[in-house]
Amino acid sequence: MKKAVKRILIITLVLLAVLGAYVFYVFHTYYRLPDNLTLEVSRNGENTYFDEDFGLREGGDYLILTYNIGFGAYRKDFSFFMDGGKSSWAKDEESVVAGVSAMAEIINDVSPDFILLQEVDRGSTRSYQVDELEILNQFIKGYYYDFAQNYDSPFLFFPPWQPHGASVSGLVTYSREGFKDTRRRSLPISESFSKFVDLDRCYSISRIPTENDRQLCIYNMHMSAYGSSDEIRAGQLAMLYGDMEADYKKGNYVICGGDFNHDLKTQTQENAPEWAYPFPRESLPEGFSMAIDSANPSDVAHNSCRNANEPYQEGRTYTVTLDGFIVSDNMEVNFYQNMDWGYEYSDHDPVLMQFILN
User: Is 257 in contact with 240 (CB distance < 8 Å)?
Assistant: First the structure.
């Protein structure tokens, strides 16, 4: 009996020591990137689409697309453990490469002037260490681009059946026209233990010159989902709005696009889960509006995101529009569409907008 108790005690102490070492590792390796970083600008292939001597044209119409590519994992049969599903990783490396390539082909076929992407992995356990930006650049040529990291997690040992592992991921902004200034802004986040597993929330600002000595300021955003706290949500929006207003007051054109993790439609669904909280339109600064409000209803009937608590089943799986654009009133939205790819390659589908610089 004494030997059995002794063995149990030793095993318990060993487990506690391992757990303590892991907690120390998580705390010791945690960091946040500093605010207001200048982003490195790269160029992928030659660009003859715009006249680089003059910049964007006043009165010119341009296409912009936003797409959360879901780190290449979210095929129709994929469900994510943090949403109540099963999987933590993509099916295999081949499916990641095939999925990211297919999404890049969609983007290449549309050939927008500006592209905003979210959840682009650069070396993560969940996507088999595939550099997804490298794959995207094999298809999306003739653009300048910047990368803003918003996730660099330590190795996470949950769920126990398939530990999520370590992740490096971020936001990518592409432009046919060269950038004049690029910034990464660190958003306020929760200071609770959840910060060790959540994204290092941020947004990027990519400023592009126009021929009338103004700038087109493109904000690429991936907001926190509702549920952390009202204070965090309000703090993130206040910071974002402050930068947007400052650019607008200088006479610049402003577009904020990406995954807002809030329902962007005005008519809320009755069966909406808590995380699909309506976007607070009343908080928008003067001079800004949600671009989806000017869309033809038939062009936004398809929702941009599906719930990942189960494999996608048309007519059963909950869907909602989380992706889109906020625009300043010195530009005109000429066309707006939630593109319908049936969530074939991601739990999000792309959103496309054509705008005119007034």
Answer: no
